[in-house]
Every structure is written in C-alpha cells, then in structure tokens.
Amino acid sequence: MFTVTIHDSPDTPWLTFDLKDILECLEPKIERLVWRCSGVECTGPFAEGIQLADEKQQTLSAEELTTFAGGVEQVIDGRFEGREAENEEPVLVLRAVESNHWVVIAKDKDVIRLLRSRFKDVRDAS
C-alpha cells in the first residue's frame, strides 16, 4: 500500500478542495468500488445523508458517494474506504483530518500519480 497526504496553501485556514475533488480526480479508479464511511463530520446540504450512511454502516456505490460528496461543503473528519465488491480489504482509503489535510492510502500506485497530477502539495507519508 502507498500512503500520501494532501495539503493546501498555509495561507488559508481551511482546505480549498474536498472529498468531491479527490473523487473527481480518481474517477476512473473508483467507479467499480463500493464504499463505507466512518467517523464522518461534515457540513452542507447532503451532510445528513452521508452521516446517516456512516451511522447505519451502509455500503455506497461510487456514484452514491460522489453524489453525496457533491452536496457536502466541507468534510472536517472522516474515513472513506473503497473496496472491490468481492473483497473485504479496502484498496483505497481517503481520510479527512481536522479540515487540515487528507490522507490517502492506495493499493494502486497509479492513484498516487493521479493525485500528484491534480494537487500541488502531495507528500509521501512516513
């Protein structure tokens, strides 16, 4: 597994990108994954829906997660695990950390390449 963190400009008190931007960047890699979320704290019109999916341990398709993400203004904290339908182990994990940065853990190194091509400050995690 490969792990990176995505950061933003130190000049802004919050991130100028969010879950929807990460999902959009990774669209070709996520379309066949099913998702579970946990520990989600977020704001926006669809915040209640994504938090309900978290509470009920509901599995979401990539399309459903992308729709929810489009109606969320900011993910403050949360973990989003993408799995292949027949596999229990996640192949992609997206984790928001206190509105400060995102941690991405991926089985596929190409995911990291896509993130580096889209976001300015992608750092290898130690």
Number of domains: 1
Shape: globular
Which class do the helix and strand fractions yield? alpha+beta
List the secondary-structure elements in sequence, H or E: EHHEHEHEEEHE
Given the structure, what is the number of helices?
Answer: 5
User: Distance between termini?
Assistant: 13 Å
**The biggest beta sheet, please?**
7 strands, antiparallel
- Uncertain stretches of 5 or more adjacent residues: none
The neighbouring-strand order within the major sheet is 3-2-4-5-6-1-7
Strand tally is 7
Strand content: 35-45%
Radius of gyration based on Cα positions? 13 Å
Considering DSSP H and I runs of 4 or more, what fraction of the residues is helical? Answer: 25-40%
Note the quaternary state here: single chain
Residue-averaged pLDDT? 92
